[in-house]
Amino acid sequence: MTHRIHRVSFFSAVLLAVVLALGGCDRNESHATLAEAPPPPSAPAPQAEMSGGAALDARKVAVQAPSAGGQAETPLQRFLAVRQDLAVEVPPEQLADAWSKVRDLCGALSCDLLSSSLLRETPRQPGSATLDMRVLPGDVDKLLGGLRGVSDVVSHTTTSEDKTSEVIDVEARIKNRTEFRDSLRLMLRDTATKRTMADLLEIQRTLSDTQAELDATATQRKVLAQQTDKQRIQIQFTPKRNLTSSGESYSPMRRALRNAGAVLAESVGALITFIAAVLPWLVLAVLPCLWLVRVLWRRRRPRV
Predict the structure, then answer these.
(1) Distances in Å between the alpha carbon of 76 and those of 66, 79, 224, 257?
(2) Tens of pLDDT, residues 7-58
(3) Is a pLDDT exceeding 70 seen at residue 198?
(4) Contact, 194 vs 209, CB < 8 A?
(5) What is the CATH number of domain 80-161?
(6) Does residue 161 surpass a pLDDT of 50?
(7) Which of 144, 136, 87 minimizes the C-alpha distance to 109?
(8) Is the model more confident about 2 or about 298?
(9) pLDDT confidence of residue 73
């Protein structure tokens, strides 16, 4: 019996040793498998690098975008008030006709006639004429071409004044006032909010003041539009002066001789005016002086 128990114990120990040996082999094989297995592909690293490159490219685009947007950005529109002053010469007998033709040409174009004047020639003064207009830039060449067809341009001056800041400021005020006016109107139409009569009257008064400011600013914008949308052209017509006559040079002495009669008449008229102005004072001054001389003469005369 004891011998049988020892045999069972021996077989149990052997079986336990075999199981442990098999477990150790499996563990060694798993370690060897893990050691011999190739490392997992490092795919995430390239993806991380690609993500970093993409982020870098995105930063470049973000940095370059403003510059690209700045290059593609529409340049600021400038508002210029252009003015042209011209002086032209016309034969004296054709001055009125030339002035009339240019004025009629202005009426046929996109042109606003601001003022016009005509002074016809008289024996005492030469004739002259002026035109003041506002013309669209597209019709300026047509007007100047018609002017050159009837006269000789002797002077042409062009000036411009930048009105950009004024236009931007006025347009900004119009936008702000319009939004404020609309908000006040919404407040008046709002029936959900309870307001007192004093509040409603205050809103109405503010709305009226805002509308008045908006109308004044809109008028100012129209004035600026007239100055910038059209060019102002002023033309001075003068008669031609002949500096030569019969092949001889112009002589101031001949001009003086021709005007001698008028100068003499003016001098005589000035003398008559002077005498008429001084004569009353002479009477008032001479009579007392004569009386004083007489009194002194009597006192100095020896008595008989």
Answers:
(1) 17, 10, 17, 64
(2) 444 445 544 544 444 444 444 444 444 334 444 444 444 333 333 333 333 3
(3) yes
(4) no
(5) 3.30.70
(6) yes
(7) 136
(8) 298
(9) 61
Q: Residue 94 is inside which H or E element, if any?
A: none
Q: At what angle do helices 95-108 and 137-150 cross, to 10 degrees?
A: 160
* Distance (Å, whole) CA 184 – CA 24: 90
Give the number of other CB atoms < 10 A from CB of residue 242.
9
Query: Residue 28's CB: how many other CB atoms inside 10 A?
Result: 10
CA neighbours closer than 13 Å in the CB half-sphere of residue 34: 5
Nearest to 237 by CA among 124, 106, 92: 92
Mean pLDDT of 146-160: 94
- In the chain, the DSSP E strands lie at 80-90, 111-119, 128-135, 152-162, 231-239, 244-245, 248-249
Find all residues with CB under 8 Å of 147, minimum gap 6, and list them: 86, 88, 102, 153, 235
Domain residue spans in the chain? Answer: 80-161, 165-228
Could you tell me the pTM of the whole model? 0.54
